[in-house]
Every structure is written in structure tokens, then in C-alpha cells.
Amino acid sequence: MASLSEEVLLVVKKVRQRKQDGTLYLMAERVAWGPEGKDRFTVSHLYADIRCQKISPDGKAKIQLQLVLHTGESTTFHFANESSALKDRDATKELLQQLLPKFKKKANKELEEKNRMLQEDPVLFQLYKDLVVSQVISAEEFWANRLGGINNTDPAVVNNKQEVGISGAFLADIRPQTDGCNGLRYNLTADIIESIFRTYPAVKQKYSENVPHNLTEKEFWTRFFQSHYFHRDRINTGTQDIFSECAKQDEKGLKSLVIQGVKNPLVDLLSLEDKTLDEGYGICTTLPSTSNANKTVKESSNSAIIKRFNHHSAMVLAAGSRKGVFTSLLTASSSETSSTDGNSRDSDFFQPPVKKVKLQEAIEYEDLQRENRPKTVALNLKKSDRYAHGPVPLQSQHYTTSQDIINSVNYIRHEMMNYKPNLTEVLSSTAASSAIAALSPGGVLMQAGAQQAINQMVPTEVQGELKHLYVAAGELLRHFWSCFPVNTPFLEEKVMKMKSNLERFQVTKLCPFQEKIQRQYLSTNLTGHLEEMLQTAYSKFHIWQTRRMMRKT
Amino acid sequence: MKLNIEGLLVYFPYDYIYPEQYSYMLELKRTLDAKGHGVLEMPSGTGKTISLLSLIVAYQRAFPLDVTKLIYCSRTVPEIEKVVEELRKLMEFYAKETGERNNFLALALSSRKNLCIHPEILHANIVVYSYHYLLDPKIADLVSKELAKKSVVVFDEAHNIDNVCIDSMSVNITRRTLDRCQNNVDTLQNTIQKIKETDAAKLREEYRRLVEGLKEANVARETDIYLSNPVLPDEILKEAVPGTIRTAEHFVGFLRRFLEYLKSRLRVHHVVQESAPQFLKDIFDKVCIDRKPLRFCAERLQSLLRTLEIADIADFSAVTLISNFATLVSTYSQGFTIIIEPFEDRTPTIANPVLHFSCMDPSIAIKPVFQRFQSVIITSGTLSPLDIYPRILDFRPVTMASFTMTLNTFNVCLCLVALSSKFETREDFAVIRNYGNLLLEMSAVVPDGIVAFFTSYVYMENIVASWYEQGILENIQRNKLIFIETQDAAETSMALEKYQEACENGRGAILLSVARGKVSEGIDFVHHFGRAVIMFGVPYVYTQSRILKARLEYLRDQFQIRENDFLTFDAMRHAAQCVGRAIRGKTDYGLMIFADKRYARADKRGKLPRWIQEHINDGSLNLTVDETVQLSKHFLRQMAQPFRQEDQLGLSLLTLEQLESEEMLQKITQIAHQT
């Protein structure tokens, strides 16, 4: 099965799977395992299908690696080579660790899309349950022509998809857990790592500088979590910490941002006051003596926290808008020189219009002016009360009060008293009586009533089940009929498969249902129409098959 | 529209008008008619500035001989610029309506860099500048002293005017000041030496002038050409400069002696507090410096600097400071206190002696303004209780009125949360956690921006640290980004801009800030930039400060204002400033949350402005965090409904016809809450 073109990245022998010895192969796009002595893979997973890998804790007797798929299934490999099991496993893990994220993006996007479709469309979801979960058809078949819409769209549209921002609290999501022996465990996911990298480019830089040449990935993150950098209230003590440089870089970035100043003059606290009190005048309660020497450890740790929060929020904000501080931070030194020497601040030249606009905004009283902006459509709420309070249980107001009834009776009586039949424009008696007959039960216009009767006879639960069967059958039939005219080998294969799918559907879904209703409602044949549709499909298939045989012979 | 305000034609550059604007103009006109002073409180966002400008400009046009000039003082540079913009709008409206270009000259001074516009000020019809140009004697002398008597002076955003007055008259002297002063004196001596060799005539000429005394200034003051300078006492104008400091060398020698004396005073090991007369007695006993030459010190130095033709006066700021101090301390026997502290309270081991010469009486600085100008209007969104300003500024207003915002529906939801934060218990773990929970809950409910104010910076730092340890901040981060005011203005500006960016792009953010800080005094959080504002605790001033204690004593003895009344008044005006930051107009809406049960007490509530008190009802008192959240949810859903002009018309927004109806005019007269 392994096609020759596939590049094999890693081969690990003596790997057991389901108590069977075999060999594990890591290839360019998939991981596969074949039992010993056989020339085929019994296990094969595309990287894109793998959600994550898990490894057995150090010190366990069995050295295992588990692959968890997006579908929820998992495959466990047991590394059984006595001498090098741990090494084998770690090599596999490291390689997978590098490979998986590459496929993750794509898989995630697809998966997200599928998920979204299922969530938004309850009918589709039911269909998925009926057909895929009950294994009538495989998930790939199910999605085969549904996802077409996604994959076939203009790539530009896909690429322009709005970038997902970063949660402000992503660091909070890394809740440390005690591991029972005086240590802390942090669970990192690829998402969190990405968030850290996007928010703190300095850390990413450190990562690419140090991993894997100087540190393993695990060591890197361990140091990260131990660093004062992660614990914002700790004050930088040593310089041996590889993250102290990150902190410095952050500091520098922050400083350059501060130096750049703000664009909106109305929030510029520096130019807020027309500073006319000279030094030495005024009741200044706190004199400028905030040198660090005067601060207690606690105070400087507190102000470090505050700084960090501001920085973190700014970085998260910048990461969300992709450009922005991100680049300006990395090029901090260059922009610094251009902005401090005073002359090169061209931006000053452009400042006034911004200021003018902001001032105009600030003094505008829109409600004092006659409205002349385009009319917008206001949300028209019939019951704004319900909007404001949320749904409320049915209450007595739905019942008509006796006063209302009396009023309406009076009204009708009043109407009746003044009623004057217009005798020149009435129907003839024959036409009238035939109309009455047509509208009576059993009449021509009351045909629908008979079906209603069935509706009322069958409990809603069976009705629902029937509906699902119809939808599922419709879906399968749609697949089936879409194969005609069968003019390619692929379609041939597909039509065969679809026919067997239909048969399987009949056996696994339709027949049990038939038996069930026969047990309860002997007389009613609810599934007649469904069977008819299947039969039509079968006969079409037979005609096609006989024709094909004839052509072949 | 064109309005008729008791017979005065007022051009108002909008199609509609708020009833309270009309009422405000009415009161303003009555004040001008009476040629008296007024105290007017009206919430921000009700178009106070344009009402003021419209009416006063109309008044100037109608009675050009009675009111020659409008002097409009505001606090911050953006405020000043806004006034100029509004004025421009008004002038454009005049031009459009009357068809002629207005020959009004308006002038805005916004920075000391453009200070040499002296003659222009005299001709301008309207001058817009910062408080300091009028209240700080050092600047007023340069800029404002020739302003005509028939001017109308407006102090907008005047809720802190007493502090501005006090600041302008207070001096702090550190060792560094004295060192720099020493250098100044040395430079002076060298310069004098040089001039003596090259141009001795100049010094002789100065001596002659000084013998003549300051007669010129005296004539000017008596003939009422100048705004008097509170630093320059009346008596000395009539006298010649005393002989002991008349020659340049003698004066420099005198300064040296004074400087040595001050140095010796800073060599203390314990805190010293004394009155001005005590200080004068001590200086006479120790170094034989008399009161009289001290009083001439500031004036004598100015003369010397002029004579020596020193271009950069900024270099001599230290010696100027010292001589200003000398003049002040010898002029006022009351209203000032001297406190010498050998070190800061927080760091008793580090010697950092400071001599505080603190003004305790704001009326001293503002007295010349009230005396000189025929109408002075004190106005702001928060001036409650109204009667306290005339008392502490020592003047008699002819009108005092408070206006509220008329609304068809309440656009403010006010919650008084029953949390405790008394000074003694506020470091309490439970208190801090409750605060955190409130903020956390609100962060999940309120859209876009939330601003939270703390009572002091140190307190906020501690709370932030605890919230960090307790994981509260991390939970808040799930809902909104967090930005925090720092003591660095540039850093805070950046945080503010980022905060606005986060509100703008829909992420939502929380700004943690400090009452009495720069943000609480100067930054508006309109619309989505502030959907909720939370005041944690009551922002009392730090009462342990010796300067404050002295001031409180003074207020008690001189004005019969009880300490607690003043402290509460001061705390409430700052709390009102903070919560008022988020509501900047009738189309704006927001939650005001006072997170401290003490706000529910009558003595606190009663000191809040009327437009805030109005929103307090039984349903908003003593709430739990949960109840606050429920109330907020309900309120925010209501507010999410579209705001329509039609609903406002006739109630909180009037057309000209509606305004002229008898019934409405009657209603409007009730808007102004007279005290």
C-alpha cells in the first residue's frame, strides 16, 4: 500500500500495537504501522487527522505513545525494544511534535468548518448521526461533496479570513497543577504556545535561538515558567536567566512606544496641563524623589505588576491587529533615533488635522442639530419587555378577561343588530350546498384531513424517527443519483458503493423501524414510500449493471 | 436659533436647545445685569460652554460699554482648545445670520511659549486661557494686569479653583533649591562686578529709581489701571526700597545672609511647624534680618535682573523662588504656615529636608480678581454644595444656581454598593476580594469600556497586587483587557490610547485609575469609552499630611467650616468628578457605581451634585454585588434601544416654538435650583 513516492522520515522497529509486534513508520504526511513480516500497514493515520499525542509518564514500565484522532479514536503504540525503547519513543515524539503543527492548521480549519456546519444545521447534524455515527457511510463520504463549497472557494477569500485574536487571559489558562511531589505541572497546548509567541515575539526569538540546539523544548518551557518573566510580581534578580533579555527587550519596546507618544491629543496627559507652576511652587505633597532606592521591595514589585499588565494588554491588542506595535517593537531602536532628535518628527506636521477632528468630535452635540444623516432602520421589537427581561412563563394576561368577553359579545350583538343581508348578491342554493359538502369531512376540499388523521395517530417520537429516515434516505439517494450518467471509473466505483450503502441503510435502519411500527401499528404502512424510492434506485442500478455487463461481453 | 433672553437677542448656533441651557443663560444674564459674581453648577454634556459664550457675546454686542471683554479661564489645554472651537462655531453662525463678518477679536493663550502677546490682550474682545494666567501672581503680573475692569471673568471647570489658588501662593524649598540659589547669587555677584567695571552708570540709575520707590506702581493701582498683585503688598508701594538692599551689592549680600539662614533651618532633625510671625522673629533674632527688606525682596530682585539685562530668567528660578518666599512670608501674617520636615514619612532614614511654605487661604490669590472685575462666574459640573465656594473664596455672589440634566428617560443607572472600605478595614482581604468580584462581574456584563477609580495610587497598587495573587485579574482578562494608570504621564497616555483602541475594536477594556489623578481630572470617557464607572471607596484626601492638617485648622478657625465637612466636601467633589467622566451628554449613557456603603449616608449623598443625587432612589441603595449586576443588565438592555430625537423633543430638547410656549417657560424657571 505504501506508494513509493512517499518519503519515510523515521522507522522504528519493535513497536507493538494491539499486542502484535511490528514496525512504525513516520512518513511525510502520515504515520503508519505494519505488523512484522507483512507487507502492508494495518494502521495508517494522516497527520492532519491527529489531534494530539500523549506519552506515558517517565518511570512507567511500559513505554507508550498514544495518538488521539480528531474523531476521538486513539491508537496506542508500545515501544518494546528493551535497550532503546525510551530513546525510540522520544525520537518519535520529537519528530511528531514538529510535524503535527504543520498539518494542524489545515486540519483545524477544516474541522472548524465541519463543526460549524454541524452546529448551525440541526438537520445536517441528525443526518451525520444517522449516517456516519451509525456507520452507514464513512465520514469522508459524508463530507465529500459538502465541503466542496469550502475547498473550492477562491483561495484569496480563504487567506483573507479574519485573523483570530488572542484571549487576554491565555496565560491564566495555563493553570499549574501540583504533581504530588513538590513540583508544578503546566499543561501547554500548541494554541497557548502560539499565543505566547504572537504576544511576546521576544520569547519566540529566544525559542528559535535555543531550541533544540541548547535546550530541549521541555527545558525551555520549564525555564520560562520558572522565570521572573512569567511571574510578573517577581523582580529581576539574576542575569543568567535567558528571559531577562526578553524583559529588557519588552522594557525597551514599551519605552519606545511611550516615546512615540500618542496620536490623539485628547488623551495626551503630558500636554494636558498648561504647566505654569514652576518647580518649587505649589502644594506638592510628593516631591520627585521616586528613585528606586527609596522604594521598598513590595512597592517596586507592585509597580512591576502594573507595568506588566499594561504591556501585556498592549501586546495582546497588537497581536490581534497583526501589524501595529509588533513590528514597531522589533524595530524599536531604529524608530527611536528618528523620533528623539526633534527635527525628524515629521509627524508633528500632520498632527493638527487629527487634533481638529478630535476637538470637533468633542464639542459636537448631535442631538441639538436637526437630523440629516441617512435614515437607519431601527430594530422593531414587538415586545420590548420580553427583550429586556428575557422569556417569561405564560401568564394570565393571555386569557381574556370577563370584561373583554362582555365587550366583544356586546360588540357582536351590536353588529348583528345592524346586519342587513345583501340578498341580491348571494350564491344559488345548489352552489352553496355543494360548497358545504366540499368543506365537510370527507369532502373534496377536506382531503388533507385524512393525512392529518395519521399524523395524529402516530406518536411524535415515531414521526420524528420517520423524518430522520426520510432525510437520511434522501441524502443517500442524492449521492446515488448524482452518479448518473456513470461515465468514469470513479463514478462506477462510487455508484457501486452507494448501492451497497442504500442496502445497508435498508437493513440497518429501515427494517428495524418497519418491524417496530409493525409491532405497534399493524395497519399503517408508513414506510411504503421510502421503500418505493429505494426500489426505484435498485432497479435503476440493475438496469445500469445489466447494460454494463452486456457492453463488457 | 435666535433667542430672546429677557429682552436680549442671543444667537445660538444650534437648531434645538436644552431647557437647562436656556435656564442657565437666564441666570447668567441676571448676574451680568447686576454686575455681580455668580456660582453656577451644570453637568457636563449639557452645552455649558456654548451657552456661556452665546450669552456673553450677545451681551457684549448689545452693551459694548458695560462689558468690554470676556476672560474665559479653563483648566486644561484641551478644554481651552474646545472653547476656541465652540467660539469659532458661534462666530460662523453670527456671520451666516447677520451676513457680516464679525469684528470680534478672540485670543487663546495656551502655553507660555507664546507669552509675548501682551498688547493684543488689551484689544481682544475675548481672551481664553488657563487659570494660572489670572490666579498666579507671577504670571498675572505679566499677562493680565492691564485687563479692563469692565470684563467678565469666567472660571470654567472651577471645582478645584481653591487648590489652584493655594498652589500659586505656596513655595517649597529643598536643599537642591538652596544649592541652585547659591549658584544664582554667585552669578549675580559676578555680573554686577563686570557691569561695575564697564557700565557703572546703569547701576547708579537703578539706585536712583529705587529711591523714588515704587511710586509708579502705586499710581497705577490707585487709578485702577492694574490688577493688583497679591504678592506686592499695598504698603510697600508707597515707600522707597529700604536702604539696606538698595545697592546691588548690598542686596546680593542680603540674599546670601538669607540663604545661609534658610540652610541652617533645613538642618533639622525633627518636624518644625511655625507661623509667619514666628519665622520672622526667629530670622531677626538669628541673623538680624528685618521684616521690611524682606518684603521688598521680590520686587528688588526683578529690578536687579532687569538692570543686569539678564535674558534667560529661567536660569534664575531658584533665587526668584527664594525672594518670592521672602516677600510672601513677610507680607502675610495670616493664611500661611511654615512646615519644615527633615525627611519623608515613608523613608525616615533618608534625609531630605523640605521647607513647605503653604498657603491655606485660597481667597488671598483670588481676591484681586473679585475686587477688580465686575462679574466673575464660577462654573462647573460639580460645585456642590454651592455655598462652600463663596465661603472659602471669600466673595458674595448675586446668583447661585444648580441645574440638572433634563432627560426623557434616565440615561444613568446609579448603584450604591454596600461594600466597606473604611481606612482601617480597607487592607482587609475580604474587602479587596469583594471589590475584585464586583469588577469581575461587571466586566462580564458591561460592553466596551469600564473605568474604575481608586482612592489613591498606593492603594491601587496594593489592590492590583492582591488581585493578581488571587487570580482575579486573570479572570477579568477573560472578559476585557486591563490597563492601569501609572505615575508616569507618558506611560499612562499610552495606556489610555490603547484602552480606547480596545474599546473601539470591540474587545473591551478596563482602565484602573486614581481619583485626583490626571485621568480623573482631564480625560473624558464618552459613549463606549466608558459604559460604567466604578468608584472604589471614598476618595478622602490623605489626612495625615501636616499641610492638610494645618489647612483644616485654618478653615475651622477662619471660616467656621468643620474639618469633617470640608473633607467630605472635598472627597465628594472628587468622587463626582470621577463618575461624571463617563456621562458626557444626553446621548451618552452609563452606569455609575459607588462601591462603598458610606455613600448611602445623608452627609455624603447630600454633598453630591444635584444631577447625581437625582438618580439615587431606594432601589439603588445598599445593593449587593449580585443586585448590582442584575440592575446593570436590565439597564444596559434598555439603553441598547435606539435613541431618537423625536422622543426628546418637547421634553429635554426644545425647538424655538416649544421654548416660547408659556407652559415651557414656566417649567424652565423651575429648573434652576436656587440656593
From TrEMBL, chain A:
Q: Which domain of life is it from?
A: Eukaryota
Q: Where is each BSD domain found? A: 99-147, 180-232
Chief site of localization: nucleus
Any keyword Transcription regulation?
yes
Compartment list: Nucleus
One Pfam family for this entry, by name? Answer: BSD
Keyword entries, A-Z: DNA damage, DNA repair, Nucleus, Repeat, Transcription, Transcription regulation
SUPFAM superfamilies for the chain: BSD domain-like (SSF140383), PH domain-like (SSF50729)
GO terms in the biological process aspect are:
DNA-templated transcription; nucleotide-excision repair
InterPro entries per UniProt: BSD_dom, BSD_dom_sf, PH-like_dom_sf, Tfb1/GTF2H1, TFIIH_BTF_p62_N
Could you state one GO cellular component term attached to this entry? transcription factor TFIIH core complex
Q: How does it assemble?
A: Component of the 7-subunit TFIIH core complex composed of XPB/ERCC3, XPD/ERCC2, GTF2H1, GTF2H2, GTF2H3, GTF2H4 and GTF2H5, which is active in NER. The core complex associates with the 3-subunit CDK-activating kinase (CAK) module composed of CCNH/cyclin H, CDK7 and MNAT1 to form the 10-subunit holoenzyme (holo-TFIIH) active in transcription. Interacts with PUF60.
Q: What does this protein do?
A: Component of the general transcription and DNA repair factor IIH (TFIIH) core complex, which is involved in general and transcription-coupled nucleotide excision repair (NER) of damaged DNA and, when complexed to CAK, in RNA transcription by RNA polymerase II. In NER, TFIIH acts by opening DNA around the lesion to allow the excision of the damaged oligonucleotide and its replacement by a new DNA fragment. In transcription, TFIIH has an essential role in transcription initiation.
Q: Which PANTHER family match?
A: TRANSCRIPTION INITIATION FACTOR IIH-RELATED (PTHR12856)
Q: According to its UniProt record, which protein family does this protein belong to?
A: Belongs to the TFB1 family.
What is the protein name stated in its UniProt record?
Answer: General transcription factor IIH subunit 1
Q: Which organism is it from?
A: Amphiprion ocellaris (Clown anemonefish)
From TrEMBL, chain B:
What top-tier enzyme class does this entry carry?
A: isomerase
Required co-factors:
[4Fe-4S] cluster
The EC designation for this entry is 5.6.2.3
| Entry's localization field | Nucleus
Which GO molecular function annotation, any one, does this entry have?
Answer: metal ion binding
- Catalytically driven reaction(s): ATP + H2O = ADP + phosphate + H(+)
The segment(s) forming the Helicase ATP-binding domain are 7-207
InterPro entries reported in the protein's UniProt record: ATP-dep_Helicase_C, DinG/Rad3-like, DNA/RNA_helicase_DEAH_CS, HBB, Helic_SF1/SF2_ATP-bd_DinG/Rad3, Helicase-like_DEXD_c2, P-loop_NTPase, RAD3-like_helicase_DEAD
Pfam families tied to this protein? DEAD_2, HBB, Helicase_C_2
Q: Per the UniProt entry, what are the Gene Ontology biological process annotations, in alphabetical order? A: DNA repair; hair cell differentiation; positive regulation of mitotic recombination; transcription by RNA polymerase II
Q: Might you report a single GO cellular component term?
A: nucleus
Q: From which residue to which does any coiled coil extend?
A: 171-220
Q: Which Gene3D superfamilies match?
A: 1.10.275.40, P-loop containing nucleotide triphosphate hydrolases
Q: Which domain of life is it from?
A: Eukaryota
Q: Which UniProt keywords apply?
A: 4Fe-4S, ATP-binding, Coiled coil, DNA damage, DNA repair, DNA-binding, Helicase, Hydrolase, Iron, Iron-sulfur, Isomerase, Metal-binding, Nucleotide-binding, Nucleus, Transcription, Transcription regulation
Tell me the protein family, please: Belongs to the helicase family. RAD3/XPD subfamily.
Protein name as it appears in the record: General transcription and DNA repair factor IIH helicase subunit XPD
What gene is this protein a product of?
Answer: ERCC2
